[in-house]
Amino acid sequence: MDIVMVRLCGVLEVTRGDEPVVVVGRKARLLLARLAAADGAVLAAADLVEALWADTLPARPANDVATLVSRLRAALGPAAVLGGRDGYRLGPDVRTDIADAVSLSREGTRQLRAGRAALAAAAARRGVELLGDGRALVGSPEAGWVLDLRGEVTALLRTLRHLLAEAATAADDPAVAITAGRAAVMVDPLDECAHRLLMAAHDAAGEQDRALAVYERLRSALAEELGVDPDEHTRALHVAILHGRTPAPARRTVAAAPPRAPAGRDAELAVLATAWEAAVVGDARTVLVTGEAGIGKTTLAEAAAAFAVGTGGLVLRARCYAAERSLFLRPVLDALGPALLSRPAPQARRLAGPAAGVLAGMLSDAAGVLGEPEPPLGSPEMARSRALDAVRDAVHGLAATAPVLLLLDDLHNAGVATVELLHHLARRSAGTRLLALATVRTEEGAAALDALAEVTDRVEVGPLGPDAVALLAARAGAARRGEDVLRRTRGHTLFVVECLRALAAGEHGVPESLQAAILARLRRAGSDIERMLRAGAVLGTAVSPDLVAAMLELPAPTVVHLCEEAAAARLLVAVGAEYEFANDLLHEALYATTPTPTRLAHHHRAADLLADRPEALAGHAEALGDRPRAARAWLAAGEDALARFASADARALLDRAVAAVPADDPVLTGRIHLARSRACESLADFEPALHDVRAGVDHFRAAGERRLEMTALRRYLSDLAPVVPAQELEQQLATGVRIAHEFDDKAAQADLLGGQAILAANRLRFAEAIELGRRAVAAGRAGRNEEALAGGLDGLKTAYAYLGETERLAPVLAELEPLLRRQGRLHLLHWAVFESALPAVAAADWDTAIARIDDALAINRRSGPRAPEVWIVAHRGWVERLRGRYAEAVELGRQATRLARAAPHDWWLPTAHALLASTLLELGEVAEATVLLREAETAARRGGTEAYLLRSLAPLAQATGSPEVLEAADALLGRIRAPAGSAWLAGGDTYLTVARAWRQRGEPRRARVVLAPLLTAARRTGWIPWLTAGELEDAAALAELGEHVEAKRLRHRAGELARRHGMPHLAERAAAAVSGARRHSSSASRAAARAAPPGSTGA
């Protein structure tokens, strides 16, 4: 196909060949822009949906994306967009102006480094032309990806202008250099590099006075804005111009050529050098070096690190260990800590950015430099997100001082959190001088490779070729044996090296296997070193001299000396405070060939010595076949990981605990299931979490451990509650309360009674809910436990909120909200803030109500679990409907139903669907409302909770006119148990829609019976929206019963309330009803007069 060019700078434009292409439709153009901005990367359908419909999703977004893709293929060619519903990317024949500019920048840099200044200037000039004024996607929405793209373009344009000014000066074209330098200085008046280039250009043009004026403007700007002087390079240039000495052209920090590559790895190192060159100019990259064990990945990565150091870079190094997966982000923190904490405290805090306190809580001994650690807030998901952002900000801060190479060795051993961080850096480091480089074993790193595939480049390291082996053989003095070595090793790097070492040491013949070569070298090292290394091999790839000394019962200095000799023999390498095996295969060969009794004895001793490191202990216990000890250790490691917010790693560790635990230990089994339920819940995997809670309860119950059973039952109060069938939840909470009373555990009583109160409210048993809530609060106060008190207040708050008892609700919220803020329990706080909107709704104070609901939504979006967002958005639409803003109500209602369908939930989906359906019914959209309500009814019946079933059936009765549905809804209303004079005001729609359904069936008396409790409660509590709407419905029923005078009175009063409190739709309805009643009355009077006998008054 013809080359398709997509211009992202300025207004989006597309050409195919030399012809312009019109892409029809705003969404299609936005989709093309999003794919083009990804620069060939695959974008998941979910990412595209987010870009296309930031606020309001269509009913079937994936289908709509597929339709838009088809439209692009029709316009640009079938190969323009590749992929399917799992993800899409632009084809190789689609180019963008930004990608071309990046290529020109790289080529210009290489040409300038090679001394070809004119070619470099030409490349840079073309790049500047492509980017124009640097404004990308003019007129597009201010979405995050658009802002990221604009940031990348700004940084790229700056780089190209610098390059053009430098190259043009070197090419004796100062006019072009001056133009480029001025443009760069105009954009950033504090850019010293741009000022130096402009000074040099003016000097080359013989305009020394202008060069000095440029310096003076820079000096003044720096002094005024930052309180500093120009740096030493700028000052030196200034002095040189003053003295008439033509300075040498400014030199870029990139070296002329990469360092000497390991034998046979020139091509691979060239790729890494190119990635580094890109990173140095702010084009952040993430590269994975992959290959089998012993193939030379680490050697290649270290060569790249040497290249980075040689070009002014900062290298952050760490190795990933399998025994440290439970330690959240440990490898990255190991790499980051020394570079950050070695700096003065003010500088370190500035580099760490606003999240310095979060980072201080993750790095040991960091408080003195970074300040006091911030406690984790909100859900585990939120804490994990804040931690990832804190590490990213710190890496970016360091990259602002020097280009950074983050090198992680053996990523296949890393926990999930470390892989997540790499993904995070890859996606959110645009414009940062960062190269993230990791080595991964192909055979063991499939999960990491899959997770990072879309955001990384790969450099595959394969066997050495004949020339490389011959070169290594010649270096080892065994040139004549090169072919033998190649034939035996097939180019496997480590095997080649070990064979050549053996030959150089005087061995006869090429070893039969890599293991044989390693063991031969081990024998040459001596029996003491071999004994020490075999003990160390049991510990893993890292060898701690102190630990090995304790295992062998040798003096520590003796073992340190043996380690030093092993390092001299290249069997170990010193890394920080420990040693590591020179390579993994050396470690594996040692472990595999250690006699079993010796190996088990070492494991036993290591297990005893590592009691404070549960993940390491677990591995030794498993090797010994000690399943109970292994299970306990895996449990402890999983709980440690949970405490560090590494939920996915915790789940994996606890899976191993479940596999290890003996069948005859129900208590330990129950503890493991309970811990795993927390990990699953924090990952929003609720069904497995509930399964684990049930298993924990069953095991504790079978063991007769009542207190542990109570602890497990309290897990039903978590975010799992809405996925538990109502009957089961009720029974389990009741059991928990009984056990709490047995132990006189006030905190547990408060917690469980509060949960019972919430459940009772959702089952429409409000009098019971209030009593339970009061008991919960009393227990919390008696137990002097603020968390338990908050749980009790939450239960009582829910009962009052459902009843709309605003005067009683207010003091509960006044005590509860500060408690929750102090405790950082955002997952409860967003409910308290939401329900604080109800008094404003009752008073028809619409702006206050909406502000509080928006506050609740903001807290929810910060707190992690997003499921309750459905409820909050749905009620935001409900308030808009109550005030008569139907367009906004429908828009928000549709947003809530989309959210509900995306994550189906047997409480939230019926709520969202029913609230939108009630709005649609008021607009006469009966068919759509009916579809929503059928879906809501199905979910509500599955959940088995009465409040959500009534929410669904009440409007369905109005929509369908079904007598069966109406009788069922009316029966549920009749089963509401509330204190005298109260009603379910939070569900006031249900009374109104059932009353309308009775009127539709010609039974206005039954409609009035339904409305009576709503009106009584609304008048007593001052709920203006329900009083107004309820009296209008009651008036309609009275009119149908012939009581026109009372109906007229109610309509006048409702109309006045509606006009006074900003409900124009109800005011219009009242006015229309009054007008209709007058017409009906006049017609009736005239008819009566005509029918009356002569002389009659018609009375």
Automatic annotation (TrEMBL):
Residues 18-90 form the OmpR/PhoB-type domain. Residues 1073-1099 are annotated as: Disordered. Residues 1073-1092 have a biased composition (Low complexity). Residues 283-465 form the AAA+ ATPase domain. Pfam families: AAA_16 (PF13191), BTAD (PF03704). GO terms for biological process: phosphorelay signal transduction system; regulation of DNA-templated transcription. It comes from the Bacteria. Residues 96-242 form the Bacterial transcriptional activator domain. GO terms for molecular function: DNA binding. Keywords: DNA-binding, Transcription, Transcription regulation. The keyword Transcription applies. Belongs to the AfsR/DnrI/RedD regulatory family. This is SARP family transcriptional regulator.
